[in-house]
Amino acid sequence: MGNLRQVTQALGRVLQRDELEGPRGPDGRLRVTVPRGWLAEGRSIELEVPRMLECARCGGGGCDGCERSGAVTTRGRKEPPELIDLHLPASSQAVTVRLPRRGGLPSDETPDLARGLMLLLVVPGDEPSAGVRVVEVAAQPAAVSAPTLAARYALTPARLLVAAAVLLIVLCVFVATR
Ligand SMILES: [Zn+2]
Prior knowledge:
Layout: H1 2-21, E1 28-35, H2 36-41, E2 44-49, E3 52-55, E4 71-73, E5 82-87, E6 95-99, E7 118-125, E8 132-134, H3 147-152, H4 157-176
Parallel strand pairs: 1-7
Antiparallel strand pairs: 1-3, 2-5, 2-8, 3-4, 6-7
Zinc ion (ZN) is lined by residues 55, 57-58, 62-63, 65-66, 70.
């Protein structure tokens, strides 16, 4: 197991280095706000990628990478909005996530290059930014549908497993005592 894990991690590093350092389109920067609880619990979110991102190289001031516009383009004018699923790293503070091939399109001179990186800054706040939704892991059963209960006993996969195990034990006891 140990060896397998090391190999997997080594492969991950190679892939990542290629994706993070290889030639590619311009990198873009996006800042989104999510409710503190989503970030604290490391929830999965769905994010609609804006067509324009702030140029990561110049921070919007204008440079050669973005043809002085301060922005990079993620899709053609007629293409539908791109949705990405993202598992947030559990954190109490803002985090930056690097997303390969979610940044700017390559220039017309180098159309074969991959898209750049998206540097996604996720900031904890009150309301989610427009286009950001939490992805529900499972539907909540009616027994815990009251908002206060649902908030206090948020359903995580681990809790669902525990709940299923408890239910199984109760059923077994019920059958055994009949
Ligand atoms: Zn720029």
